[in-house]
Write a structure and sequence with these properties.
With 76 residues, this protein is mostly helical. 55% of the residues lie in helices and 8% in strands. It has a two-stranded parallel ribbon with strand order 1-2.
Length: 76
């Protein structure tokens, strides 16, 4: 997963189209976040957690959802 920071800044050097093309070409998730405002951070962690559980988890689908829900509750 590629996470681009500084999403809150003006004049970004990488366009949404470039991000989409990179994501498709390499078959990985890409997202933009802002550490300053927090925009997109929770969603990035959720996508990362879901992908890790999908790839490495030994639990059932129901348990995977519970783990992600627990993470979501802790951030609230």
């Amino acid at each position: 997963m590629v996470v681009g920071n500084k999403a809150d800044c003006q004049g970004l050097e990488v366009t949404e189209e470039q991000i989409a093309a990179f994501s498709l070409k390499h078959g990985i998730k890409c997202c933009r976040v802002s550490a300053k405002t927090g925009d997109g951070v929770a969603e990035a962690y959720e996508v990362l957690a879901r992908n890790c559980l999908k790839a490495f988890g030994k639990t059932s689908e129901g348990e995977k959802s519970t783990v992600v829900d627990d993470i979501r509750k802790k951030k609230a």
